[in-house]
């Protein structure tokens, strides 16, 4: 018997976990024992670029996409119902969205605790994530990235992820059926939240959570986008904040007593900047600059911060306010 075959199962499966899923799965051809060892591998990393892109133009060959999907089906079948810790999936257009969702559902049934999904399906796919993902009792960490728009959140009715501690959604633009204040109660132990390129539905934003310690909140940037009327942060245990949006008319509540690090990118739209810079502008009908002065409320709310980063747009908003009052 070769030395590797004499290793305990937990050692053999641990060794396989350092290989790519494609390489680890190929060991199942060696013998029944290696097939059993592969079933114990707790982490799966499925990347269509590894399977499809080593050679230029390989993705376009007849049958290659079907071969990739068959490979994933076989991998999941080989593992059966064994517990799984992490499932990473990266795939682009051409892959059957129904089969993608079936893969996600299978690992959810096996009690996966970490999902890392990078799914680049164009808008014409009308792709939606499986409902099972929003009622998982085992999911602790969820990351979703896409180069296209994401209609991610199906609404808060009957949605619960009671163990979710980390949620990251990064896309060109993200749409939610509900406001963020309705979303957060569905994650009672959430500690880290990253939403990159979110499209706001309303003009009032409230981020309220007792458990959040890290928040990255970037609202989609368009030159014609309206400023929010009010933005509230009721996050008493927040340690790190990265916040990018058009400057709000008001910040009535800023509760961040434990904040250590903050990165702010507050912007005015082109029309507002033009009006403020106009010569002989003795008054502004809607008090644009005076309302921008409410940014002081935000700054006062984070006055205990130890490390503060301000982008050039934020400095410009502050300069326009103080210059106008001078």
From TrEMBL:
First and last residue of the signal peptide: none
A Pfam family recorded for this sequence: LRR_At5g56370
SUPFAM superfamilies xrefs: F-box domain
Domain F-box intervals: 1-54
Domain of life of the organism encoding this protein: Eukaryota
PANTHER family linked: BNAANNG15180D PROTEIN, RNI-LIKE SUPERFAMILY PROTEIN
This protein's name: F-box protein
Native source species: Noccaea caerulescens
High-level lineage: Eukaryota, Viridiplantae, Streptophyta, Embryophyta, Tracheophyta
